[in-house]
């Protein structure tokens, strides 16, 4: 084997190790979330096993597998492993004996009060790796794939604005986004009626943490607050940056695809809760 091929193989294996580590860490978090879901269902006196929900989990996995070029049976098997772990974390045997252990004891497990439940979820999210620890996994994703995903999302969200002429000021202009805690940056340029994403030089850039950029995108915090508190910083051509910011604020939220709105909203809330939990743990 040539030396170069040997080096490339070693680097690929290191990347695979990173992905494996991330997958196992996420499975561990998923198991804890499933356990918390089980406590919620007991509190509501609902059956712990939820067949329709499991079917929904599998159906979503198949849609994602098709989008990402993952074999359907691989996605099926992976989710079955995750769901079996999810059941086990809720006191269900893998063969779904519906929590016979409770019937044997005649007592339901202690019900957490709402404070202890939210504090459990808070503590759980505090165990999530901070975004800066996710950075190296995100950098494993090929740059072209990352830029392609951003380009498709931006084009889909901003297509109505382009059609209305609201983005004419962006013709041939280059606006950068820098996610400081993930070490990610990209530049969006309007070329004709299309948006192009690359990592070249930008005329103006918006810089902030992943959480604050998500909160802005999800409309959970307003731009004035984020910029006033310098949680988001505009660099370079201020006029271009402010024009782009004002456009985003005027963007009719209902024009954003529902799935993306839900994803942004949930992602931003999860990121904010995890950040608060990390801060609480650091202060303790
Ligand atoms: C996690 C839950 O409990 C169980 C485990 C599931 C899973 O691991 O995805 C889905 C449904 C339930 O059978 C839930 O109800 O959401």
TrEMBL record:
<protein>
    <recommendedName>
        <fullName>chorismate mutase</fullName>
        <ecNumber>5.4.99.5</ecNumber>
    </recommendedName>
</protein>
<dbReference type="InterPro" id="IPR003033">
    <property type="entry name" value="SCP2_sterol-bd_dom"/>
</dbReference>
<dbReference type="InterPro" id="IPR036263">
    <property type="entry name" value="Chorismate_II_sf"/>
</dbReference>
<dbReference type="InterPro" id="IPR036527">
    <property type="entry name" value="SCP2_sterol-bd_dom_sf"/>
</dbReference>
<dbReference type="Pfam" id="PF02036">
    <property type="entry name" value="SCP2"/>
</dbReference>
<keyword id="KW-0830">Ubiquinone</keyword>
<dbReference type="InterPro" id="IPR002701">
    <property type="entry name" value="CM_II_prokaryot"/>
</dbReference>
<dbReference type="Pfam" id="PF01817">
    <property type="entry name" value="CM_2"/>
</dbReference>
<dbReference type="InterPro" id="IPR036979">
    <property type="entry name" value="CM_dom_sf"/>
</dbReference>
<feature type="domain" description="Chorismate mutase">
    <location>
        <begin position="3"/>
        <end position="94"/>
    </location>
</feature>
């Amino acid at each position: 084997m040539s030396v170069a091929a040997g080096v490339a193989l070693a680097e690929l294996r290191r990347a695979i190790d990173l992905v494996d580590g991330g997958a196992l860490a996420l499975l561990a978090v998923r198991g804890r979330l499933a356990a918390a879901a089980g406590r919620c269902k007991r509190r509501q006196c609902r059956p712990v096993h939820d067949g329709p929900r499991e079917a929904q989990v599998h159906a979503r996995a198949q849609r994602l597998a098709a989008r990402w070029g993952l074999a359907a049976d691989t996605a099926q098997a992976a989710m079955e492993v995750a769901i079996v772990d999810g059941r086990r974390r809720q006191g269900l045997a893998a063969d779904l004996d519906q929590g016979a252990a409770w019937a044997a004891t005649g007592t339901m497990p202690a019900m957490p009060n709402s404070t202890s439940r939210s504090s459990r979820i808070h503590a759980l999210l505090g165990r999530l790796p901070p975004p800066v620890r996710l950075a190296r996994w995100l950098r494993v994703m090929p740059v072209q794939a990352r830029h392609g995903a951003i380009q498709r999302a931006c084009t889909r969200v901003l297509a109505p604005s382009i059609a209305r002429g609201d983005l004419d000021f962006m013709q041939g202009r280059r606006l950068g986004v820098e996610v400081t805690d993930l070490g990610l940056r990209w530049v969006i340029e309007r070329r004709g009626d299309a948006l192009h994403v690359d990592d070249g030089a930008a005329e103006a850039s918006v810089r902030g943490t992943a959480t604050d950029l998500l909160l802005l995108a999800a409309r959970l915090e307003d731009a004035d607050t984020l910029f006033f508190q310098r949680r988001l910083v505009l660099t370079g051509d201020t006029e271009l940056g402010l024009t782009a910011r004002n456009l985003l604020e005027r963007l009719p939220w209902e024009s954003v695809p529902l799935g993306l709105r839900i994803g942004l909203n949930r992602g931003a809330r999860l990121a904010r809760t995890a950040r608060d939990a990390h801060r609480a743990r650091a202060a303790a």
